[in-house]
Amino acid sequence: MTTNSSGDDAYARAGVNIDAGNLAVQKYRDVTSGWTHPDQLGSLGNFSGLFRLPGDATRALVGSADGVGTKILIAAAVKRYDTVGADLVNHCVNDILVTGAEPLFFLDYLAVGKLDPHVASLIVAGVHRACRENHCALLGGETAEMPGVYRPDHFDLAGTIVGMVELAAIPDPNRVQPGDAIVGLPAVGLHTNGYTLARALIPEDEYGAPFGMGTFADALLAPHPSYLQQVRAMRAVADVKSMAHITGGGLLENVPRTLPDHAAAVFEQTRWDVPPIMAELVRRGNLQHEECYRTLNMGVGYTLVIPITDVDAALAAAPGARVIGFVQPRRDGEPRVVVHPARTA
Amino acid sequence: MTTNSSGDDAYARAGVNIDAGNLAVQKYRDVTSGWTHPDQLGSLGNFSGLFRLPGDATRALVGSADGVGTKILIAAAVKRYDTVGADLVNHCVNDILVTGAEPLFFLDYLAVGKLDPHVASLIVAGVHRACRENHCALLGGETAEMPGVYRPDHFDLAGTIVGMVELAAIPDPNRVQPGDAIVGLPAVGLHTNGYTLARALIPEDEYGAPFGMGTFADALLAPHPSYLQQVRAMRAVADVKSMAHITGGGLLENVPRTLPDHAAAVFEQTRWDVPPIMAELVRRGNLQHEECYRTLNMGVGYTLVIPITDVDAALAAAPGARVIGFVQPRRDGEPRVVVHPARTA
User: Where are the beta strands (DSSP E) in chain A?
Assistant: First the structure.
């Protein structure tokens, strides 16, 4: 059970409250603690939930639910409806990928203030296209017309993915050791996190203005990529010990879930590029180092912990992958994640 | 792929457009027709989607996504947050139940304008309670704080259920024959359909007014029941040939999906009770016969087609079940469903 309100001071100023999010997760644990289904594996608060496949000792089903978040408000503002489906599906694919699962099927939930069949079909076509690219069935979905909840020109898009994993193939963070490399896969932009902040810093009347090779809208709506092919290729040639999908909470909150207590991740930001749209947000918001790495992915979409001996093979298997940090010993009270900035503040 | 905008003239007057809904479903078929996953069984437009379980010749996974709809606006107005979870989960349980599936796990999506951890935990507690009652794991979920999409006091709640079915246990509407009985399970109220109409006919300032044994809010928020136990009990003793969950579209649109082309369902409304809240809506809206049975469940929550020889055993197994109609021969051009009113109009 996750909340999408991770962030910090800058995020809170933009209207998203991280303390409320953490408190909600704590309360969810309380209200659900009285009963857990006996076939449920793992706990709330991870990227995905695992469920023992009935009558099968070797496999588990993996499920994850997510939404596109307020990125949809930018899509609605510029009437670009064909990319949010990829945001949603690829986010979900990556969330179950960290367990080692391959996608089976997906279901979407589209809620609108006023149903425009053409717009709705553009959105669903994008969902279907992304499902196909991930060889994942679009098994069904629900479109709800809800006047009074959504503005006529607004919508919300959420979905659930189900995948399957061999129990023996589930990565185990406890195998991670100091000296292991952390390989990163590049982010193309904000993906699906940080948009409430981005919308506060880039007003709607600038969406059409030139930025980089296109407009601000182009940069802000760059679709969340699927890392399925790259991760599959690396796992075929390297011992991948644990993985993280860098979503809300950034490197600082997502990477610790992939490490044992006695290990810390130390990243060197000189080793990768921060996308221009992210640098622009940092500049406009005067975001401090910690704020950046807790609110935004800062250019890293996915991380894999790999023993140093397997790194060359892994990098050769996945174009774009690079070593961005290392696992180091950690003592009690020390930070779980350190990001060395490219330049001093 | 279903849309929740089923209804008719009265519904359209209330702001939900059935033509747009049907057109959207048609367009979804068009945009998704280019590719279907090879393990996907059945087609879009049914209650649930079926997916062949990899490496297992005898079983399928069944998935269904749904939302609570504008019933949440009534819950938000009277600040009653503990029942919408049951609405959502039980709706989903019933949707996959028509395929014969038993639930495995559920994931929820909660979107809010401003995250109040207490309110969110009441909602999630209701989801968890309903999951437990259906012996269904609450495998995960997402809570999204989306200022600008939702009003601070508004929320939306949707979810996805996954179940499993033996392929041999999937009901087959083609086995239905004239002379079979149609057994109905009683609805306790509107369940999760017709709320945009209900909200147009019963203004918010009346929610606290006395109605029946309680208030209008009590009647309007009566939780959608799960029919899992009753259906399981009937299937254990009777040959259940096909089943329908009576949701948006009412008896007129949901029952045809459970019949072969040469058969019609003929219901006698003297055989069941219309809940008082439904009668009140009919009176206030001056709803015509066809409008009622296409927009509201009119007191029937679930239907099962059972050979006449098995009816006594089925009724004995499920308290509340009763015979509400029969299957009759149908010629081309004749209606698929006829409801004989309790009294002449």
Answer: 2-3, 40-41, 49-52, 59-67, 102-112, 137-145, 155-166, 181-186, 210-211, 214-215, 242-245, 263-268, 300-306, 322-329, 337-340
Cβ–Cβ gap B149/A154 under 8 Å: yes
Q: What is the pLDDT of residues A122-169, one digit of tens each?
A: 999 999 999 999 999 999 999 999 988 999 999 999 999 999 999 999
Buried b (16+ CB within 10 A) or exposed e, A230-245: bbebbbeebbbbbbbb
How many residues comprise chain A? 345
Nearest Cα of chain A lies from the Cα of B79 at a distance, in angstroms, of: 15
Q: Judge: B105–A56 Cβ closer than 8 Å, yes or no.
A: no
Q: Locate A47 and state its tokens.
A: 């990227």
| Res. A66 pLDDT band, cuts 50 70 90 | very high
Burial label, A38 (beta-carbon count in 10 A; 0-12, 13-18, 19+): exposed
Q: What is the CATH number of domain B36-169?
A: 3.30.1330.10
Q: What is the DSSP string of A162-219?
A: EEEEEGGGS--GGG--TT-EEEEEE--S-TTSSHHHHHHHS-GGGTTSEETTEEHHHH
Helix (H, G, I), strand (E, B) or coil at B66: strand
The tokens for A289 are 């180092």
Residue the block writes with tokens 């012996």 = B135
Ranges of each domain in chain A: 36-169, 173-340
User: Which residue of A lies nearest to B73 if distances are taken between CA atoms?
Assistant: A149
pLDDT of residue A15: 66
Residue type for position A325: G
Supply A22's token pair: 């953490």
Q: What is the pLDDT of residues A221-277, one digit of tens each?
A: 999 999 999 999 999 999 999 999 999 899 999 999 899 999 999 999 999 999 999
Instruction: Indicate the SS3 state at residue B102.
Output: strand
CA A134, CA A59: separation in Å to the nearest integer?
20
Q: How many Cβ pairs within 8 Å bridge chains A and B?
A: 292
The torsion angles phi and psi of B177, rounded to 5 degrees, stand at -130, 150
Query: What distance in Å separates residue B316's CA from the closest CA in chain A?
Result: 31
d(CA A149, CA B73): 7
The fold of A173-340 is Phosphoribosyl-aminoimidazole Synthetase; Chain A, domain 2 (3.90.650)
Average pLDDT, chain B: 92
Residue A121 has pLDDT above 70, yes or no: yes
Query: Residue A87 and residue A127: Cα distance in Å, rounded?
Result: 9
Q: What pLDDT shows up at residue A5?
A: 42
The number of helices, as runs of H, and strands, as runs of E, in chain A is: 12, 15
Instruction: In whole angstroms, give the CA distance from residue A196 to residue B145.
Output: 9
- From chain B, the residues in CB contact with A125 under 8 A are 31-32
CB contact under 8 A, B35 and A132: yes
CA distance A179 to A262: 12
Using a CB-CB distance cutoff of 8 angstroms, which residues of chain B are in contact with residue A51? 104-105, 137, 139
Q: CB–CB of A31 and B5 under 8 A?
A: no
pLDDT exceeds 90 at position B18: no
pLDDT of residue A9: 60
Percentage above 70 pLDDT, chain A: 92
B217-244 pLDDT, tens per residue? 999 999 999 999 999 999 999 999 999 9
Mean pLDDT over the full length of chain A: 92
Interface mutation vs chain B, best among A146, A156, A195, most B CBs within 10 Å: A146
